[in-house]
Specification:
The chain is mostly beta strands and 440 residues long. It contains three helices and 18 strands. The chain is globular and about 65 Å long.
Length: 440
């Protein structure tokens, strides 16, 4: 794998040198290597009498990224990032016609044009990362958690992480898109077009998303933004599903130690389930999502402890779209961000300058009760009872800065099923993750 990265880096460097050496002012090389040891147990909550292939997982995982940023002229830049993420001890079966791809992919590949046509406009064209607000709507093309509207046999089926039920660890966050940023300080307008799926080039069966985000920096203590997103999904038998979202996000710092965050989004959906729409329940009414949080840092205390509280709400038929939001580690892997409300409490402290400890507790409830068989993911089909009490999660974490470029981590997570789960599947789910990240 190292040889592949070296060869690709050499090809990229030589191609720049051969074709446009005179125009290149500077090339910056950067990247990171992340390694994880992951244990997952009872993610089926001990479902009696049913063999679940992903009940327990014990794997090693690596994600390697190598990025090149080339300044061609003062206002023209090119960014290319290579990505390899793989489970330890596995082989690339895609080369032999299989499903799993462990090769090197082009993760980022876009051109940045500043002061486009002489205006205060920055244009980015190509494969790039995009995130609106806190990631409630747009942040990850495959979502960073389970999404009932995205099939495991979809556009990312070749990823080992998706095939193994570990897609919440994926480093893939890039969209094929065109984004324009208009700088009218203190106001910024961002307009974007995302091509999510190009199924058959001669058919109308694509998924396209457009968005506009208007941000305003009122002062050093208050920023706000308003966004509109429209997703047109025609993948299912040429039937058209249109999901529109309008939202707003605000961040305030009334005190140096206090941060307040709030985000609200309203969503409408149209489509024909009988004609192949993405929803089978026939409900296309409006939905809402709300995120509210506050964090306070005790700056005068040696360990600099912080306390944070947050509340999240996603209505019954909320479409998580391209979300990149984690309410709790295990819950994020098992449940979609829909038909759920959460209350979270987070405590952090630094017993040493290079060591951060954290404790997070989250209570999860269903917005509407569900029946047996409706909670389905890549771990199990759960047996449900007549209750909204989904469960509680406790996440414990340590982060140690070995050097300024190397960070070591350890996470221990526990999910305790609530009364919404039948006694045949109410065992505690556990997760342990040891990690190392090197940035260069």
């Amino acid at each position: 794998m190292v040889k592949k990265l070296i060869i690709l880096a050499a090809i990229f460097s030589l191609s720049l040198a051969a074709s446009s050496f005179a125009a290149v002012e500077n090339i910056k090389v950067s990247g990171d290597i992340s390694a994880y040891g992951i244990h997952r147990g009872d993610f089926d909550f001990g479902l009696d009498g049913v063999a679940q292939p992903n009940d327990g997982i014990d794997v090693g995982l690596s994600a390697i990224r190598l990025q090149f940023d080339a300044d061609l002229t003062e206002d023209v830049m090119v960014t290319l990032r290579l990505l390899n993420e793989r489970l330890w001890g596995t082989i690339d079966t895609e080369a032999a016609g299989g499903a799993q791809d462990t090769g090197v992919d082009i993760d980022l590949a876009y051109v940045t044009l500043k002061d486009f046509l002489g205006y205060p406009v920055t244009l980015k064209v190509g494969r790039q990362e995009i995130k609106l607000g806190q990631g409630m709507i747009i942040g990850d093309p495959y979502t960073n958690s389970y999404n009932p509207y995205v099939s495991l046999a979809g556009t990312n089926a070749g990823s080992q992480l998706v095939m193994s039920g570990l897609d919440d660890f994926s480093a893939r966050k890039a969209f094929d898109a065109i984004v324009g940023i208009i700088d009218l300080a203190p106001m910024t307008i961002t307009v974007g077009y995302i091509k999510d799926t190009e199924a058959v080039t001669t058919s109308i069966d694509d998924t396209n998303t457009m968005f506009v985000n208007v941000g305003y920096d009122f002062d050093a203590n208050l920023i706000g933004e308003v966004y509109v997103v429209s997703k047109n999904d025609q993948r299912k038998n040429a039937a058209k599903d249109i999901t529109n979202v309008i939202g707003t996000r605000w961040v305030a710092n009334p005190l140096d130690a206090l941060t307040l965050v709030g985000e609200f989004a309203y969503q409408t959906k149209k489509g024909d389930p009988a004609g192949g729409g993405i929803r089978a329940d026939g409900k296309h009414s409006s939905d809402i999502a709300v995120l509210v949080g506050a964090n306070y840092a005790f700056l005068d205390i040696d360990w600099v402890p912080t306390i944070g509280v947050d509340w999240a709400y996603f209505s019954r038929n909320w479409d998580p779209m391209y979300e990149d939001l984690t309410v709790a580690h295990i819950a994020n892997a098992i449940f979609p961000n829909m038909n759920i409300s959460t209350i979270g409490l987070t405590l952090t402290a630094k017993p040493r300058e290079d060591l951060m400890a954290s404790i997070r507790y989250v209570n999860l409830r269903l917005v509407d009760e569900v029946m047996t068989g409706q909670l389905v993911n890549n771990y199990a089909t759960y047996v449900m009872d007549d209750s909204k009490a989904l469960g509680n999660e406790l996440d414990l974490g340590l982060r140690y800065d070995y050097t300024e470029d190397v960070q070591l981590g350890l996470d221990m997570d526990f999910f305790f099923p609530g009364d919404a789960f039948n006694e045949v599947n109410d065992d505690t789910a556990t997760q342990a993750v040891a990690s190392m990240k090197v940035t260069f």
